[in-house]
Each structure stands twice: as C-alpha cells, then as structure tokens.
Amino acid sequence: MNAVDEIRGAALGTAPVPLSVLDLVTVGSGRTASDALRTSVDIARLAESRGYHRHWVAEHHSMPGVASSSPAVILAHLAAYTERIRLGSGGVMLPNHAPLVIAEQFGTLEALAPGRVDLGLGRAPGTDGATAAALRRTDTLHEGADDFPQQLAELIRFLDDDFPHGHPYSRIHAVPGPVQATSPGGVQSPARPPVWLLGSSGFSARLAGALGLPFAFAHHFSAQNTLPALDLYRESFRPSAVLATPYALIGVSALAADDEREARRQVLTGALSMVRLRGGRPGLIPTPKEAEEYAFGPMEREFADGWLKNVIHGTPDAVRAGLDDLHKRTGADELMITANAHGGDVRLRSYELIADAYGLPA
C-alpha cells in the first residue's frame, strides 16, 4: 500500500465520502476511565465491521471527562482488538512532546499494526496554559509561527531517518523505524505512518497545503472557520510525494437516536459539559437527567444553543441529511464523526444507526 492509498479512503454504501470516527474517550458521571476505554474498543470494532475508514483518538489533558491523555497507549490497545481499520491520532499535540519521542511511539504503533497507522499532529496544547507548562516543564509557552514548522520538520526527519550528514541528529535513529531495514541483516519494513496536520484556524491549513500533506479541520468546535480554512488549504496546496491533489477531512459532531427527542436529550449533555469547561469547571459528562434539570443562566443558555447548532442530531435520516448537506457546503473529502453523549451504549447505537442510514456493509 502506498502513501496515497493510506490517506484516501473509499466511500461505501450511499455515503458521499468515506466516514470515520473521532473518539474523545469520554467519561460519564457514574462511570470510570476503564468503562470509557472499553467503550473505545467496542466503537473501534463496530466501526471496523461497518466500514468506517479510520478511528482517531484526540490528545487532551487535565479534563476529568476526557480520558485520552495518552493517544499512543490507547491506539496500541485498539490495535490488539482490530485488524483492518486505520488507527491514528486526531491529534498528538506536537509542542507537548519531543519529536523523537513521537517518532518512536508511532514507529512502535506501525510495527504493531503495519500499514494502518496515521499520525495526526496539532499545534495547540490540548489543555489550558498552566497544564501545558507542566507538560513541557517550562514557565513560557512557545506557540509562535516559527516553532511548529521547525518541530514538524524535525519529526519528519526522524520518521524518515534522513537527517543530512553533519547534522547533530544524523547519528540518532527513531526505533522502530527505517534504520532497521538498512542495518546488516535488517528486514524491518521502512514504511512509516503518514503525517496529517490538524487545525481549527488558518495556520495549519496553509502549512499543510504548502507541504502537500493531508489536512484535518476541527469543524466540530470551530465551524465558523471551516470554509475559510479549507479554501486556504486548497489555495496553498503544492503537490508532493504524498499527495498530488488536496485531501481534507473535517471533524463533525453528530449523534443519531431512534427519535428526535432522545437525540436532543443526549446531545444536551455535551452542551452542558462545554458550558462547564468554558466556565473553568471541567468535569465528567453529565447524565441526560442532570442536563435537562440544569438551570442555565442567560449567557450559558446562549452559549449552549450556539454549541448545539453545530451538532447534527436527530433520527438517522435527519443525521444523514445533515451530513450530506455539510459535505455539499464544504466539499470535504472525508467526514470524521464524533458522538458526544453520557453513555457508551448511546454512542455505539449512534454509529450503528448512521451506518444503517448510509447502507454501510453489515
């Protein structure tokens, strides 16, 4: 399988483009992180059986309701329970880690699941400033335009094992990795995970285009920037050894239920979670009953209503229509669905119903 085949998926059933899963490993009130991780396995296995193209895990920190602080660990676990679906990070926050460490982690994942690992990279910390400082063991955060491209270039050099002669890192190798194929007696595959850039604004869109890399945009929490960012990516795109033409994926918040009222009850839990997070009170995902009984203040209600407008929810037919409309408006090459709800069974049911609505293989 070449790099282009690893990036471009195939639309199945009546879906306009490939469908994928973004998993936040959410922890509901009354549930444990172990429960959430078991649900992630169940979702990955369901997604694989129903023809979803990939299953990504996002890096977050210091958030009680999101148990995905270690994407590489979770992906290794998911690899043991799946056989075909692509697994990846959506994403690893590059400034939080040394590039060599990421290259080693994803080289290990590639060895565990050859030919089906994606390395999605983000520039944001995936948390608040104080937590980011603790992660990086520094009092000063560097989020400048010059730092990320330099870190990215270094990471790709480690992945490809091609630092030029005389470079300080030319004798350092990310293992597992290509160096094993060039060592005496080496039989290690030189393949490495394709790199994606993630973003919620124009910075990564422009950089992904300039480097000819695939781009994933966080429409699920930055909808107002989706079209400008996709336009910028396509306008900036330069063909590369990875891609001859642009490939843009967008993250979409969507939840299907057997009836509209139940879907509304379930997505309200995500809205309340975001209200609390925005107010500096992150916690576990509330139950539908708790969300229904919560007394939203005027500003909280305004924020929650705005958040819910960006969540496609309802019956399977309504969700399918919403996803189709979003695809028409954005021209996205792939839709990556994140289902936010309190219960793992609700999330599983949603992915099943969406697969049924598009006639994906059983």
Strand-helix topology:
Elements: H1 3-7, E1 19-23, H2 33-50, E2 54-57, H3 71-81, E3 86-93, H4 99-112, E4 117-122, H5 129-136, H6 147-160, H7 179-182, E5 195-199, H8 202-211, E6 215-217, H9 226-236, E7 248-256, H10 260-278, H11 288-293, H12 298-309, E8 312-314, H13 316-330, E9 334-338, H14 344-357
Parallel strand pairs: 1-2, 1-9, 2-3, 3-4, 4-5, 5-6, 6-7, 7-8, 7-9
Helix pairs in contact: 2-3, 2-14, 3-4, 4-6, 8-9, 10-12, 13-14
Please provide a brief summary of the model.
By secondary structure, the chain is of the alpha/beta class.
Quaternary arrangement of the chains shown?
single chain
> How far apart lie the N and C ends?
25 Å
For the CA atoms, what is the radius of gyration?
A: 20 Å
Mean pLDDT: 93
Count every helix, treating DSSP H or I runs of 4 or more residues as helices.
14
Q: What percent of residues are in strands?
A: 5-15%
What is the string of SSEs from the N terminus onward?
HEHEHEHEHHHEHEHEHHHEHEH
Please provide the count of β strands: 9
Q: What is the overall silhouette?
A: globular
Low-confidence stretches: none
For the sheet with most strands, the description reads:
8 strands, parallel, barrel
